[in-house]
Write a structure and sequence with these properties.
Elements: E1 3-8, H1 14-24, E2 28-33, H2 40-48, E3 53-57, H3 63-76, E4 79-85, H4 100-128, E5 131-138, H5 149-169, E6 174-181, H6 188-193, H7 197-202, H8 209-221, E7 230-233
Parallel strand pairs: 1-2, 1-4, 2-3, 4-5, 5-6, 6-7
Helix pairs in contact: 1-8, 3-4, 4-5
Length: 240
């Protein structure tokens, strides 16, 4: 049976880089985001390289959409071997500007969607007694900054979810890991909004998506006698 790597939150930078890495490892990549048509360049590029990839539209905040996504992939493409939850929701909002609707939406994207995707992955993997589930965290997973109350609370919640899942599913031969990206990543948003980003990039002071993605495939390939639960990623000049 073909093995699948499902990347949920396959954005243009980190998510797409992770998808390319897993495709290079020989897995069929299923990439999902709310606007699946925006994944065409990724899928076409992998196809041109002789690698297998599929694109899906999915709002991971919706339970029915998530269960349908997993069921469709399992029925028509292959067994889901790896799930990467990579939805960000990094929205800066002062506490006085954070109304209940905004707070709830950020929590839905960064935490509740992680629960839905993680639970669905566990349902399939537990029957096979194998699999890898990786959650992408951020600085906000461990430290709440001014102006990020909603995001930090959601990311703290996602980290707690991952911890509980790791303890519950590890004995079932399912590796659950949490990757804290504690730095700026080389994305279009950073290039447009951080004036010193170009200079930082020249001296390896900003995280390259492809190099970050290599950590995800490393976690997948780890022997189970030495599994990593949490990994902090930052460039060499980053202050802790």
């Amino acid at each position: 049976m073909d093995k699948v790597a499902l990347v949920i939150g396959a954005g243009d930078a980190i998510g797409s880089a992770i998808a390319r890495r897993f495709a290079g490892e020989g897995l069929i990549v299923c990439a999902a985001r709310r606007n699946g048509e925006r994944l065409a360049p990724l899928v076409d590029g992998l196809g041109a390289a002789g690698l297998r990839a599929h694109a899906f539209s999915c709002d991971a905040r919706k339970e029915e959409a998530v269960t349908s996504l997993f069921a469709n992939i399992e029925a028509t493409i292959g067994e889901i071997e790896v799930v990467v939850f990579n939805i960000g929701a990094n929205v800066p909002l002062g506490i006085l500007e954070t109304d209940s609707r905004k707070f709830f939406k950020i929590w839905e994207m960064a935490c509740f969607a992680g629960f839905l995707c993680g639970r669905e992955a566990a349902r399939y993997m537990s029957t096979r007694q194998r699999g890898t589930i990786i959650f992408t965290g951020a600085t906000a997973s461990v430290r709440g900054a001014a102006g990020f109350a909603a995001f930090a609370s959601a990311k703290h919640g996602l980290r707690a979810l991952a911890q509980s899942m790791a303890r519950e599913l590890g004995p079932q031969n399912i590796h659950v890991a949490h990757v804290i990206v504690d730095a700026a990543v080389d994305t279009q948003w950073i290039a447009e909004n951080v004036p010193e980003s170009a200079a930082l990039k020249l001296k390896d002071g900003i995280v390259a998506p492809d190099d970050l993605a290599a950590n995800y495939t490393m976690l997948y390939r780890q022997p189970r006698n030495a599994w990593t639960f949490e990994m902090d990623v930052r460039p060499w000049i980053e202050r802790w």
